[in-house]
Write a structure and sequence with these properties.
Largest sheet: 5 strands, antiparallel
Number of domains: 1
Radius of gyration: 11 Å
Distance between the termini: 7 Å
Number of strands: 5
Strand content: 35-45%
Shape: globular
Strand order of the largest sheet: 4-3-2-1-5
Helix content: 10-25%
CATH class: Mainly Beta
CATH topology: SH3 type barrels
Order of helices and strands: EHEEEHE
């Protein structure tokens, strides 16, 4: 499932990131969002969702949330 379908407050493990954009992959890697890392959806918002990765909170848009596959 992707982050758009993820339940708020539950910790998931990033399975993969489905994008061909290398710059986007590098950006997510710099945040600590890569395969095998835990991620928690804090809240779903109209334009995307708020996630917690490591010790930071980030607001990501719908397109990016749909590209991050979690288990």
């Amino acid at each position: 499932m992707n982050l758009r379908a993820a339940e708020e407050g539950k910790e998931y493990i990033v399975k993969q990131i489905e994008t061909d954009d290398e710059e986007l992959n590098a950006f997510l890697f710099s945040l600590g969002c890569y395969s095998g890392e835990p991620i928690t959806v804090i809240a779903h918002k109209k334009g995307g969702c708020v996630v917690s990765i490591k010790d930071g909170r980030y607001n990501i848009d719908v397109e990016l949330a749909e590209a991050i596959i979690v288990e």
